[in-house]
């Protein structure tokens, strides 16, 4: 059956990202999406035809990234750009006009996505395989693959049909392993998010003075040197707005003055409260750290930034407690293992 070439695939591939949200499609997922958009049946394709189809998808993806229609903000993540949305809308309106391959100016509003380390300028004179959605070993994207697909009996760059089938199966196995790893990471992320909620609930039930003690003990667990008794008495700090003192650097002995206020998670520290803390630090000659279970208003954050005051809101506090094993226990440790190809290579069949 005729395989869609890279040029035909570009628009259906771009449509997969038209919802403007980041995606981490596997190559098999994107293969099914593009096939559905083109009305192509994967069941009727041989292994060789599927391999050629994947080659052409890789070529189409390379074109979309080169012309800044598709961005690659981080590993495994792809997202349509503003230029890509405009191009997609334009092509859908006048899809009967011939497509012109031309360089599209970079939309600098998307620069934060275009600065990803994986993004490289493609050298048209020396085409080389390029990963699509985190392929470990990209399929060969020969520049003549589009012409080969148009022929009734395309020539293969492999010695036998068995080699083609074996490579395709190995590739799909690697993609499945990557997908399973991604699923495990998502489960762990959701578990930690739920644990953080529980940590916040437990901390919110504490008395104000107990909350201050918890914050100072956490900072001590993180490696800061805490002034003796500073967490227990306001007089040690010299102000009822300063609940403790830690040292930023053991060599320079730079003090950091702490205010730990137990606001409920739904409340926010305002600019007036932050300014009061700034005034309390005026003659101290050190820095400040404001910790709370709530959040900080935008004006409070601006004020804190101007005065070099570090902020810890409820979400960050829970994250620090979990990452430093403070008031949490490690129940189980799971080891995620993979095949050691180098070791197995020593036992190849002769």
Give a description of the structure.
The protein is α/β, with parallel strands linked by helices. 44% of the residues lie in helices and 10% in strands. It has 12 helices and 9 strands. The protein has helices at 6-15, 27-38, 47-66, 82-93, 111-114, 145-150, 161-204, 208-221, 271-280, 298-306, 314-323, 341-344; strands at 70-74, 77-80, 225-226, 244-247, 255-261, 268-269, 287-292, 295-296, 309-312. The strands form 3 sheets. The protein has a 5-stranded mixed β-sheet, with helices on both faces. A two-stranded antiparallel sheet has the order 1-2. A two-stranded parallel ribbon has the order 6-8. A hairpin with a 7-residue loop joins strand 4 and strand 5 (255-261). Helix 1 (6-15) crosses helix 3 and helix 3 (47-66) crosses helix 7. The longest helix is centred in the middle third of the chain and has 44 residues, at 161-204. The model is unreliable at 102-131, 133-165 and 229-237 (pLDDT under 50).
Terminal residue distance: 39 Å
| Unreliable stretches | 102-131, 133-165, 229-237
Strand order of the largest sheet: 3-4-5-7-9
Number of helices: 12
* Radius of gyration, in angstroms, nearest whole number: 28 Å
Largest sheet: 5 strands, mixed
Total DSSP E strands: 9
Helix content: 40-55%
How much of the residues is beta strand, in percent?
5-15%
User: How would you state the average pLDDT, rounded?
Assistant: 75
Give the overall shape, derived from the CA principal axes.
elongated
Q: Provide the structure class.
A: alpha/beta
The run of helices and strands is HHHEEHHHHHEEEEHEEHEHH
């Amino acid at each position: 059956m005729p395989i869609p070439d890279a040029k035909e695939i570009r628009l259906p591939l771009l449509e997969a990202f038209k919802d403007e949200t980041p995606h981490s499609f596997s190559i098999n997922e994107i293969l099914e999406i593009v096939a559905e958009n083109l009305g192509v049946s994967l069941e009727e394709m041989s292994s060789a035809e599927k391999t050629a189809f994947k080659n052409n998808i890789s070529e189409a993806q390379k074109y979309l990234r080169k012309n800044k229609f598709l961005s690659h903000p981080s590993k495994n993540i792809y997202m349509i750009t503003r230029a890509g949305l405009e191009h997609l809308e334009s092509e859908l309106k006048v899809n009967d006009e011939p497509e012109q391959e031309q360089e599209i100016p970079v939309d600098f509003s998307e620069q934060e996505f275009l600065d990803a380390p994986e993004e490289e300028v493609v050298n048209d004179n020396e085409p080389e395989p390029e990963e699509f959605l985190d392929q470990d070993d990209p399929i060969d994207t020969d520049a003549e693959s589009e012409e080969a697909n148009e022929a009734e009996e395309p020539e293969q760059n492999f010695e036998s049909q068995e080699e083609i089938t074996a490579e395709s199966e190995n590739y799909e196995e690697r993609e499945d392993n990557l997908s399973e790893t991604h699923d495990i990471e998502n489960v762990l992320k959701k578990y930690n998010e739920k644990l953080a909620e529980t940590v916040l609930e437990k901390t919110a039930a504490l008395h104000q003075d107990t909350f201050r003690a918890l914050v100072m003990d956490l900072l001590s667990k993180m490696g800061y040197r805490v002034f003796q008794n500073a967490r227990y008495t306001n007089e040690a700090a010299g102000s009822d707005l300063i609940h403790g003192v830690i040292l930023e650097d053991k060599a320079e002995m730079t003090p950091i003055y702490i205010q730990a206020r137990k606001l409920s998670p739904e409340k926010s520290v305002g600019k007036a409260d932050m300014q009061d803390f700034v005034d309390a630090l005026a003659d101290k000659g050190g820095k400040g750290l404001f910790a709370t279970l709530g959040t900080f208003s935008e004006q409070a954050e601006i004020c804190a930034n101007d005065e070099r005051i570090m902020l810890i809101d409820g979400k960050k506090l829970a994250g620090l407690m979990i990452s430093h094993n403070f008031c949490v226990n490690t129940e189980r440790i799971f080891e995620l293992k993979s095949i050691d190809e180098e070791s197995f290579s020593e036992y190849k069949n002769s």
